[in-house]
Structures are given as structure tokens and as C-alpha cells.
Amino acid sequence: MTDIKAFDNYLSDEGPAALVMREWLMPVEGPDGVVFPATFAAGDGFPGGYNIDRDANGRNVCLIDSVGSQANRIEPLFASEKYRQLVPQIVVKAGDKEISILDAGHRAGDAIVRCSTLQQELQDAFKALLKGDAAPLAKLAPTSLVFGVWDSRDTQAKLPRIVASTIRAFDVRELTRSAQFTPATDYVSEQLLDEPTDKKVSDAYAERGFIHVPASRTHGGVIASSGIRRDATLGLAALRLLPVGKDEQRTIALRRYILGLALVAFTYRPGGYLRQGCLLVLDPAKAKETLEVYPDGARKPATISPEEALQYATATAEAFGVQGGRTVPFEKERAKEDVKRDGGSKKPKKGAKKAENAVADGDG
User: Fold this and answer.
1) How far is 347 from 307, CA to CA, in rounded Å?
2) Residue 159's beta-bridge partner residues?
3) What mean pLDDT comes out for the span 57-74?
4) I want to staple 132 with a disulfide (CB 3.0 to 4.6 A). Which of 48, 207, 215, 243 is the partner?
5) Residue 342 pLDDT level (bands cut at 50, 70, 90)
């Protein structure tokens, strides 16, 4: 059995501030292949489309997969057979669907769990966190401590991310693409449909596939001239701040447990398929780098395999005491009360929507 003290140097104030991983990726077609980044809606002066930041020298950085999106790809691994024993398997039954808390975008702060029979337990756990005890939340939703959480609709309790991962492409060339939809037959000339009388009817024909529809110069992906890189960080300095009151034994047990989960998440590489047109694999020409980074800036190589992380996480989970799984019902009446408490149809306060979007992206 793995020694639960194996990584206690990471929990020491004299230990590293963080673990940092950098791995270079490329499209399956090759380094010069076209990759489709995430697209974002317009807002706050942003016209919408790809998120590309440019500098005065003509260089740019394109966001391929955001920190929130990466978290949502990694977190569900704790529901898989190999890792499910590490965390409580909490499932909410909502109508005919069963939703794992590991799939909820806001984690322990999500409406799906907030309006279930777990409501009071979660509220008590968040209140305990505000008073300096993270253990109750770790017993219910430990991945909320790993990937961050914000109880924005109730107690306002908030925890930063311990594990963060982002994929970016450097010096990209934007491409466009055009397409033309051709229907199976000319429905109007064949007198199968009447000639459209106005734009509303014409748009309806187009939407239902009855007339030709051109799509000109839409987003066509990018070519990353200087490569694509995934950067992952495990913030040990943040982990060492997790409180369990003044009980040193409970504190070290909690921090070891969360470190175990964080190491599993940090060493796990999410699947390469991100979206249509964005299938990435490791670039064999560029070495992966994993480092311990110390407060004084010193950087030392780190070698922790996924297998070692799992063994350590299994031992620390057993020592911490993981609760059994359960399925709880979503309650419509709780949801109604939740809406009333927020003012129902009132317009959100200025900035509220922005904060909501940040949390929806996992920015707890």
C-alpha cells in the first residue's frame, strides 16, 4: 500500500508553490493541419468568434480550449470505474434523467444539486467553509475543492481552482470556408411549393432545406504556425490554505486527500477530441515538461505517473473516509422557491450575468 505521507513535502510551506506541466499538441493531420478553436458569443465589445489576442508586433495567441472547458472534460473521470472509489458518487434524479454532480457545470453550487434534497447539507457545508472548515464540503463534493466552486446563489462561499488546464495556439493564421447547400430538387420550379411571397417565407424554406442556401466566408479554423500547447498547473500553495479549523490531524488528512485527487486530475490527459475539426495528439517532436516550481523561482523536474497518482489517491481517500454514493431527487418546489428568492423575473443586477457566465465556464 502506498505511504500516505509520500507527498507530504508538497503540503509543507517549504515545498513547491506549484506543479506545472507543458505538453505540445498538434492536429492529427500534422503540425500544419487546420484546427478549429472554440467560438464565443459576441459581447462587451467582442464581435464573437475565435478568441485571438494580438500584440503590437503582429504575434497572436488563440484560445483552443478554456480553463473551464478543460475542467469539465477532466472532472467526469472520477465517475469512471477506475476512479469512482475516490469520491462520493452523488447523482440527482431530475425527471427521467440522472445527473452526476461530476457533470454539473457549477459543481456543488449548481442548481441541479442546490434544488435537490441535498440543499440543506450543501448549505451547511458552505457555511462551514466560510467559518474555516472545508471537511464537510470534501465529504460531499471533493472535486469542488479541486476544480473550484462558487456558491454564488446563496452563501457566496468561494474556493479557487487547485488544478487548472488550458490549451492555446500560437501565431495562428485564420482561414475561412464557404459552402453551398443544394436541395434534392427545385421545389418551387417543380411546383411542389409555392413561390415565397416574402422574406419570412423564404427564410422558412431555407431553414427547412427546400431552397439553395449559400454560406460564404465563415470561420474556417486556424493553422498554428508556432504550435499548440496545453498548460496545466496544480497550485500547491492554494491547496495548503484549505482549512479544517485548528485540528491539525483533520487538516493534514483533508489536504492529503485533496492532493491525491488533484494529482490524479493533473496527471490525467483528457481525450484529444475537443470538437468537430479539433482532434489533437501529442507532438512527438517536442518533449513534455513537468516541473516543481518553488517560491524562489527554482524549477526542478517532477516525475509523477498517473499510476502513482492513483495509488496515492486511493490510500489517502481510504484514510480520509469517503462516503458512499447516493441518488437524490430534484425537487420542483425547491426550484420554485429558489427562483422566488432571486426575484423571479427581475432583471439581473449589473455585472451579474458576467459573473454567471464566468462560473458557467467553471471559473469558480
Assistant:
1) 49
2) 149
3) 94
4) 243
5) low
Q: What is the pTM of this model?
A: 0.85
Whether 96 and 320 have beta carbons less than 8 Å apart is answered as no
Longest dimension (CA), the chain: 82
Q: Can you say how many angstroms the Cα of residue 310 is from the centroid of all Cα atoms in its chain?
A: 21
- Three cell numbers written together for 304: 509523477
Question: Tens digits of per-residue pLDDT, 305-319?
Answer: 999 999 999 999 999
Q: Is the pLDDT of residue 108 over 60?
A: yes
Cell matching residue 256: 492529503
**Cα gap 211→327, rounded to integer Å:** 49
Note the pLDDT of residue 1. 57
Residues 6+ apart with CB under 8 A from 118: 90, 92, 140, 328
> What CA–CA distances, in Å, run from 284 to 9, 21, 25, 145, 169?
32, 16, 9, 34, 17
- Alpha-carbon separation of residue 245 from 132, 133, 148, 155 (angstroms): 5, 5, 20, 19
